[in-house]
Amino acid sequence: MRNIQLHKLLFGDVSNSISVVTSFLQILFQSIPFFVGFIVLEFAVSWIQKRKLSGRINDGISSLSLGILSRLPDVLFRSLDLISYVYVWDNYRLFELHWHSPCTWYLTFLGVDFAYYWFHRISHEVNILWAAHQIHHSSEDYNLFTALRQSVLQRYTSWMFNLPMALFIPPSVFAVHLQFNLLYQFWIHTEVITNLGPLEFILNTPSHHRVHHGRNPYCIDKNYGGALIIWDRIFGTFEAEDAKVVYGLTHPVNSFEPILLQLRPLAHIWNMFWATPGFCNKLSVLFKGPGWGPGKPRLGLPEEIPVITGKEVPYNPSVPAYLNCYAVIHFAVIMDLYIDLLATVTVSNPCLYEIVRCKYCPHFKGKIVKEHGSSGTCKPKAGILEIIRCLIFLGIYKLGYLRSEFSFLDYSYEVRHLF
Length: 419
Hints:
This protein is mainly α. It has 2 domains: about 1-235, no CATH class; about 320-415. Helix content is about 55%, strand content about 0%. It has helices at about 1-10, 15-25, 25-30, 30-50, 55-70, 70-75, 80-90, 100-125, 125-135, 145, 155-160, 170-185, 205-210, 230-235, 260-275, 280-285, 320-345, 350-360, 360-370, 380-400, 405-415. Helix 8 (about 100-125) packs across helix 9. The longest helix is centred in the N-terminal third of the chain and has 24 residues, at about 100-125. Its cofactor is Fe cation. Its EC number is 1.14.16.5. Keywords: Endoplasmic reticulum, Iron, Lipid metabolism, Membrane, Oxidoreductase, Transmembrane, Transmembrane helix. Its main location: endoplasmic reticulum. This is Alkylglycerol monooxygenase.
């Protein structure tokens, strides 16, 4: 069935673009097992290279939770990227490039990556867009988990950058490159790959993207490319990897809680907006860079970027080993159910919201290992939220809306809630 859907997308009638193109989004969902496999491989290679794992449990679960949350709109709605693109194609296209022409595919590859470069760059240079995108940069680790650390809101700003291509490029061709461009960016979030030789001049590589994720002064606002680094070289935003990169935001958030990470940047802009005097200055808070302030350049002052001392320690509160084990086991169950949700649920399902509420409860669970006080102990509310989460799971499970593809998970879930 999956092969038939792909064949229809690549070779079918593009006039029925909505139904055909949206089916291609399943490729992203079908890639989840490969994501997991590469994460395991990265851990193994990191251990061989450094006798050290490439990530931490708390940060990894936080990144995966943010990734789950970011895909929630795909469960409830069709892709805004594709809906808007198909609308422009159906109503305003100037001419139609032949989908079977190699030139069309090469041009679309360049066009999608060019559009991504400018979307990505503007997301760093416009404060209201940075409020969404900075979630991806909030991890102080750099590994394949980080690639899945995404914002819920970012998809509602990226779509407009692709619309010029809808004037002449068929939606089916665009959809292929949109997804493959996104999938390409997964593997470059790693430290286990060093330098790729001549490919470094053309492709966006792990080395280039490590710079992009750094908070060192030389890393700020550099290397925006998706699959290609040529746009950064052309437009003056390229920077080669030099000094050891320290990852994360210039002002670390010191939290692993997914909902807080999604909302805190918006709250910060809201407070700045009302605290800044003058109507024009208020607009500047929204549409100039995150480092801007009255009397400063559009992107702020470079000298105000915190200096890296080399003694930076990632936020890593102490958690008992049994809580880490508890979190990993519960999250494994949730991931299995989440994959099933993406594969089977439709917006016509009357039980959709109950299923979504249940399957996205890792954000309740997240508090038990991610939100800690300054003393490094769990906050009292974490236990209460965990009890609520388990009760919700139990209720939805008893109604028959939760079933894992792995029977032993169903059994373990049943046994676990007998106590």
